[in-house]
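Researcher: I'm preparing a figure for a lab meeting and need a structural model of a single chain. I don't have an experimental structure, so a prediction will have to do for now. The sequence is pasted below. Please return the structure as tokens so I can convert it later.
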Amino acid sequence: MIDGLLRRGIDDGTFRSDITAGELRFLLGSLPQAAARLAAERQAGVGETAALIATVFLHGTGTTRPRPPQPTRAATPTRSS
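Model: Understood. Here is the structure written out token by token.
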């Protein structure tokens, strides 16, 4: 069931196509474990950890990636006839 949902997200462009549904499932499964550890160690509250899971998964695996900075080019003089 989860793999089908993840595959659909890959197919419709919600998730990156260079990560398989199995890899996404593994990552998604690992986030609640890490968040539970944060909450147990009182490093974050329950609401904070829930937001962390959603944010990290959706934005960390989404197709929108920051663009690398473009090199600046010096202006090239133009010739006039």
